[in-house]
Design a protein that fits this description.
Elements (H helix, E strand, L loop, with lengths): L1 H21 L5 H13 L7 E5 L1 H4 L4 H4 L5 E5 L5 H6 L1 H4 L7 E5 L2 H6 L5 H18 L4 E5 L11 H16 L4 E4 L26 H11 L6
Parallel strand pairs: 1-2, 1-3, 3-4, 4-5
């Protein structure tokens, strides 16, 4: 009887361990898809890497906006800064980019009321230093958080995070802060109509046209 109980407990523990081992971290499938793409069609080395959340993911034709620059787009929708940090060894460093363009932090604020502007800034600094420690002197660009109509309640936090990150980058070498936030507002300070999709979160071609004009001057030849 005791042997049967021991075997049952061992089997239960083994099942629980295997089940836990099979649980993948968030966005694991997205990262594996990137690796499959890279295996099928190796991307260029020393290109400009766009990394971050869905505003980059949905910019599927980003290369056509910057025809003179080799672009690798590794945005994965729904991601926050900790996710980009988690997968840096998979989606940043293998490409040996000459420049990293980051759009991320908006989902961090939307995830929980407990996430503050200071939280986003701290996470960005962690990602920044991770890149700098691995690739000293790397040119790093941060695209400001955008004024998404569906997230207007987050406006104070977004403006605060943008201001702090801008101030931080101003004290670093080989960096740029691209302010798309104010370019996407009307003269009375409201999000421009006609530049977002129906979800009032993601942009249409008109929104990305604004981004192109703002980002292109800081891209490296």
């Amino acid at each position: 009887m005791k042997l049967a109980i021991r075997f049952f407990l061992f089997a239960s523990l083994l099942i629980a361990y295997n089940a836990k081992a099979q649980v993948k971290p968030p966005f694991w499938n997205d990262i594996q898809n990137f690796k499959k793409q890279d295996s099928a069609t190796p991307p260029p080395q020393h290109a400009i890497l766009f990394v971050g959340s869905s505003s980059f993911t949905k910019w599927a034709d980003v290369q056509s906006y910057f025809p003179s620059y080799p672009i690798i787009n590794r945005g994965f929708g729904g991601s926050s800064l900790p996710d980009v940090i988690r997968y840096a060894n998979d989606i940043i460093f293998p490409y040996h980019p000459k420049q990293v363009v980051i759009y991320c932090g908006e989902n961090d604020l939307a995830a929980s009321d407990t996430v503050t502007a200071a939280t986003v800034v701290s996470r960005f600094k962690e990602l920044f230093m991770l890149i700098r420690n691995k690739m000293p002197g790397e040119n790093i660009v941060f695209v400001s958080l955008k004024p998404s109509p569906s997230r207007q309640k987050l406006t104070p936090k977004m403006e605060d995070a943008n201001a702090q990150i801008k101030q931080f980058l101003a004290m670093q070498k080989s960096t740029s802060f691209v302010d798309v936030y104010h370019l996407m507002l009307t003269p009375d300070g409201k999000p421009q109509p006609g530049i977002y999709l129906q979800d009032n979160l993601h942009m249409n071609a008109s929104g990305y046209a604004i981004w192109r004009k703002a980002i292109e001057p800081v891209l490296m030849k």
